[in-house]
């Protein structure tokens, strides 16, 4: 197995109590079976406290019983994890030790990144000044990857998209070329012929986007308050921060484009990247939030809810794909 990460990956470090948000609040924290076995075998006061705070979620998975305001029972008043303070990071369950990192596997290849849902990860991603690139965390022996021909072609197409992003000099030309290239590539690879409709944020289109946003299941109160602050606003693509726009496009293509291996919808993945970059700009302009904070709240609402992400895909499919 070979693991690839973005060049900015190693810059990430959890900033702990300096974080304005907290990933130990507002999330259901599932406990993997290996860690559950460790918790169940732990003796002493900490073992007793652990077992007293484990429950079963609606889907039948083991998780921590959250306290008032959906706080993890092991989060102290300083915003630090008592499990780490007591026994180090080995005390964490898999989801806690991984977050905000994500992993995708195909063939003998693993890709790992940091998610925009974390304010520090969002800051790193949005502010990155170097062109997007990947490097390996293990041997670069490509014979270990065992990729299918389709996967190899998809990787080549994605590299072409990354190259287009890195060399672009305007947002509007970049978005248009990404969508056109992805539509052409999808036709050549699958025979599907999506219409490469440019995503133009007119006031009329923004009104449709607001309807989408307000239809999403709110995962926290922050999203509900945000949705009420947004209004229909036309965007001028080339008034956007080009560097930040490139970084958002690269992030979403890195995280989602290879999922086309299972559904063949290359254009839809590129449309998601372009659409999201523009929605993040809309949130920022309507609220005065930074692009990083806007990206963070959008990511938490859509990337960590399968239902909400599907709703975004459905919107894009109906508007730009069918």
Quick gist of this model?
With 322 residues, the protein is α+β, with helices and mostly antiparallel strands. It is 52% helix and 8% strand. The mean pLDDT is 91.
Entry keywords:
322 residues; alpha+beta; 2 domains; 8% strand; single chain; 4-stranded mixed beta sheet; two-stranded antiparallel ribbon; globular
Description of the structure:
β4 and β5 form a beta hairpin. The longest helix is centred in the last third of the chain and has 22 residues, at 266-287. α5 (119-127) packs across α13, α10 packs across α12 (266-287) and α12 packs across α13 (291-302). This protein starts with a strand and ends with a helix. It is of the alpha+beta class and 322 residues long. Strands 4-5-1-6 form a four-stranded mixed beta sheet. It contains 14 helices and six strands. The protein has two domains: 24-93, no CATH class; 148-320, no CATH class. Helices cover 52% and strands 8% of the residues.
């Amino acid at each position: 197995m070979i693991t690839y990460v973005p060049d900015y990956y190693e810059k990430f470090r959890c900033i702990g109590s300096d974080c304005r948000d907290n990933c130990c609040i507002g999330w259901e924290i599932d406990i993997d079976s290996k860690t559950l076995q460790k918790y169940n075998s732990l003796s002493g006061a900490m073992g007793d406290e652990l077992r007293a705070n484990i429950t079963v979620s609606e889907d039948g998975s083991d998780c921590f019983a959250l306290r008032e305001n959906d706080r993890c029972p092991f989060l102290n008043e300083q915003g630090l994890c008592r499990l780490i303070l007591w026994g180090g990071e080995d005390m964490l369950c898999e989801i806690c030790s991984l977050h905000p990192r994500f992993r995708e596997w195909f063939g003998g290849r693993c890709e790992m990144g940091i998610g925009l849902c974390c304010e520090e990860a969002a800051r790193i991603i949005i502010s990155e000044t170097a062109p997007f690139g990947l490097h390996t965390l293990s041997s670069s022996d490509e014979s270990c990857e065992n990729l299918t021909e389709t996967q190899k072609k998809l990787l080549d197409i994605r590299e072409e998209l990354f190259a287009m992003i890195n060399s672009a000099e305007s947002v509007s030309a970049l978005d248009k070329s990404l969508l056109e290239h992805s539509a052409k590539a999808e036709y050549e690879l699958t025979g599907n012929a999506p219409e490469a409709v440019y995503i133009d944020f007119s006031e009329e289109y923004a009104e449709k986007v607001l309807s989408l946003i307000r239809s999403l299941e709110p995962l926290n109160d922050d999203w509900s308050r945000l949705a009420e602050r947004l209004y229909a606003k036309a965007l001028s693509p080339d008034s956007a921060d080009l560097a930040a726009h490139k970084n958002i496009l690269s992030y979403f293509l890195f995280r989602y484009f290879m999922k086309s291996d299972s559904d063949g919808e290359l254009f839809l993945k590129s449309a998601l990247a372009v659409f999201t970059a523009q929605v993040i700009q809309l949130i920022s302009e309507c609220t005065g939030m930074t692009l990083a904070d806007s990206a963070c709240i959008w990511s938490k609402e859509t990337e960590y809810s399968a239902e909400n992400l599907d709703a975004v895909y459905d919107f894009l499919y109906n508007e730009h794909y069918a």
